[in-house]
Write a structure and sequence with these properties.
By secondary structure, this protein is an alpha+beta fold. 29% of the residues lie in helices and 27% in strands. Helix 7 (126-134) packs antiparallel against helix 8 (159-171).
């Protein structure tokens, strides 16, 4: 079988590795990939947002199934172009990808479907947005409506912070087109859980629940990032909570997307805030696998992922996944100096000659220079995933693996999964 993974991060390395485990004889390509994907696939020098180039490569290499990792090519219409050419693809149409690409669109659908989400207002006019903030309780959350590389949501402790943030977005254009529309929300209290649903638009197969760690510093301090680590499964995500997520969140959103004329076929990510009473509220929807959640949920899958992807891409009900019984996974993100605001690139990376048992390193922002030296090329550089038959074992293995990697200015959290550890 000929498979193509689109993207260049840790999520795509984890995807390519999972597909290689299930299909050892498949021809797997990655566009553009990274030095990690090159160990399990053939990299193609095509940017993920070059949708014409990717479509041409799919035709040239006879690709039978494409799995799109990032949101940008989906929002640009890559899945539409591949489907128009008669190719199977895991990823929604550009119209359905607006569930992530436009927070205003997503909020409107949630309200229409009666899905629990924070009260909000949507604005393109700065004075109106400032008036709304002046009458709003503290704290509050300001979000760029468009795609802002995971940095467009800002939790503001005071109305003053919110006014500054909205002015930066609408007045100064810090996020460009992505911030020309802003959503201002009430702050939700609770614990976040990431639910990843494989769907043909009607039927759903859930991946194990995960929890991301967005803040840069330990104890969830510091600025928001694209994600500093994750773990799964999450004990907070009980069978009862997952059923509520299906009944109250995922199925209603899929129905709303169908009714809107934008049916969703792909991976629907629901970012939930679970209150102390155990009630799930929606923080956001995404149109693809999470990063770094993918790096913990795919090592929990024993088999059936490729079969499931094929079924949903054909429009059929996703087939059941086989999970490793009693396995846990923890991923620690190793980030560049200056991340998230001004990450420094170019640092030489030293990896251990051999990895400890239960440790895998996924490449996220790396490149090989002309001399073959591995160097940092992005904000999030490497993801160190530890697996084990207990949460504590997986957590310890991830932390131990992270300590074996070295590059100048490397920063990472040593407390990934701290809430789970407290619960246990």
């Amino acid at each position: 079988m000929r498979l193509l993974v689109v993207g260049s991060g840790g999520r795509e390395h984890a995807l390519a590795a999972a597909l290689r485990r299930e299909a050892p004889n498949a021809l797997i390509y990655a566009a553009p990939g990274n030095p990690g994907t090159a160990t399990v696939a053939t990299n193609l020098p095509i940017a993920a947002d070059d949708i014409d180039g990717i479509a041409a490569a799919a035709a040239e290499h006879g690709i039978e199934l494409t799995i799109v990792g990032p949101e940008v090519p989906l929002a640009l219409g890559l899945a539409d172009q591949l489907r128009a050419a008669g190719r199977l693809v895991v990823g929604p149409s550009a119209a359905a990808a607006q569930v992530e690409a436009s927070k205003a669109f997503s909020k409107a659908l949630m309200h229409r479907a009666g899905i629990r989400t924070a009260a909000s207002g949507t604005f393109t006019d700065l004075p109106l947005a400032l008036d709304y903030i002046n009458g709003h309780d503290e704290p509050l959350v300001v979000k760029a409506s468009g795609l802002a590389a995971g940095k467009g949501a800002v939790v503001c402790a005071t109305r003053g912070e919110a006014r500054d943030t909205v002015t930066a977005m609408l007045g100064h254009g810090i996020f460009g087109d992505a911030g020309r529309t802003v959503v201002i929300e009430s702050f939700l209290e609770g614990e976040e859980v990431s639910i990843l649903a494989l769907t043909n638009g009607t039927d759903i197969e859930l991946l194990p629940a995960a929890q991301d760690h967005k803040r840069l510093g330990e104890g969830d301090a510091g600025p928001n990032t694209g994600g500093m680590g994750a773990y799964g499964p999450v004990s907070l995500a009980t069978p009862e909570l997952l059923q509520r997520a299906l009944d109250d969140v995922l199925h209603p959103m899929l129905a709303a997307l169908r009714d809107n004329g934008t049916p969703f076929n792909g991976i629907l990510y629901a970012g939930l805030m679970v209150t102390r009473a155990g009630v799930p509220w929606v923080v956001e929807f995404n149109c693809r696998l999470g990063d770094p959640e993918t790096q913990v949920v795919l090592p929990l899958v024993k088999g059936g992922l490729l079969r499931c992807f094929e079924a949903m891409a054909r429009g059929e009900a996703p087939t059941p996944l086989e999970l490793h019984e009693g396995r846990f996974a923890v991923t620690t993100v190793l980030a560049a100096k200056g991340y998230p605001d001004t990450p420094e690139k170019g640092a030489a990376i030293t990896l251990p000659a051999t990895l400890p048992e239960g440790v895998t390193i996924f490449h996220a922002g790396t490149t090989l220079d002309a001399a073959g030296i591995l160097r940092a090329s992005g904000g999030r550089v490497l993801n160190v995933t530890g697996t084990g038959q207990s949460f504590a074992e997986a957590q310890a293995r991830s932390a131990a693996g992270a300590a074996l990697v070295h590059f100048e200015g490397m920063q990472y959290r040593r407390d990934i999964g701290w809430r789970e550890a407290t619960r246990r």
